[in-house]
Specification:
It contains 10 helices and 10 strands. It is of the alpha/beta class and 227 residues long. The strands form 2 sheets. It has an 8-stranded mixed beta sheet with strand order 3-2-1-4-5-6-9-10, with helices on both faces.
């Protein structure tokens, strides 16, 4: 698979490392060519540096590893190069006080889709710190990390599910792109709990068997129920 990476920061580094190891061809794109060269060298393998446009033109799948606020403007600038491509959004629109910056408006992922309407935008990889994505693989208490994925195009979703698995994780169908805002809100909540309260966010959800409430044993017969 040909993968373009927009950005040269920690998320670009962490995720692209897995995909280079999986044998994909990767072009790292950045406005600063020296940063792109340094990251491509660190990734090794087939990774090559380039401009943002070169990465967008190269990739069948393009990772937008860009801060919220920059993503939509870059997508708008590159919309012709991104036309028909799968565009992965891993951003988190979280501001001071761990507030969601998109509250009341389109999600960050929907803003990317509006900026480059010919793309198939998929929301994924936004719920963890970049150091979690550097793990090989991310496994906790014997369970692989689950990665919710939201998008509208089945072919695009299948490609992103493959990339999730190659990062050592398990993809979880999160619904259409209209649900991407829920993932972004979840990230805002989790970051606030982890950083602001030093709470274990994972502990707020019960095991799957209890998701609909405790199981109740049926009485053997009606007579015993009233004894």
């Amino acid at each position: 698979m040909r993968i373009g990476v927009l950005g040269t920061g920690n998320m670009a580094d962490a995720l692209a490392t897995h995909w280079v190891r999986a044998g994909h061809d990767v072009v790292v794109g950045g406005r600063d060519v020296h940063k792109a060269e340094r990251l491509a060298t660190r990734l090794g393998g087939s990774a090559k540096p380039g401009s943002l446009r070169a990465a967008a033109e190269f990739g069948q799948v393009v990772l937008a590893a860009l801060p919220f606020g920059a993503g939509a403007s870059v997508a708008r600038e590159l919309r012709t190069a991104l036309d028909g491509k799968v565009l992965i959004d891993c951003s988190n629109p979280v501001g001071p006080g761990f507030l969601l910056l998109t509250q009341g408006g389109p999600s960050a992922a929907q803003q990317l889709a509006a900026a480059a309407p010919g793309t198939h935008v998929v929301k994924a990889f936004n719920l963890c710190h970049e150091d979690v994505w550097r793990m090989t693989p991310p496994v906790f208490d014997g369970r692989s990390l689950a990665v919710p994925v939201c998008g509208d195009d089945e072919t695009a979703l299948a490609l992103v599910h493959q990339l999730v698995r190659q990062a050592g994780c398990e993809p979880v169908a999160g619904g259409g792109l209209e649900r991407a805002g829920l993932l972004e809100a979840t990230a805002a909540l989790f970051i606030g709990l982890w950083v602001g309260e030093e709470a274990d966010a994972q502990a707020i959800a019960p095991p799957l068997a209890y998701a609909a409430g405790p199981a109740h044993e049926e009485p053997e017969d009606a007579e015993k129920a009233f004894r």
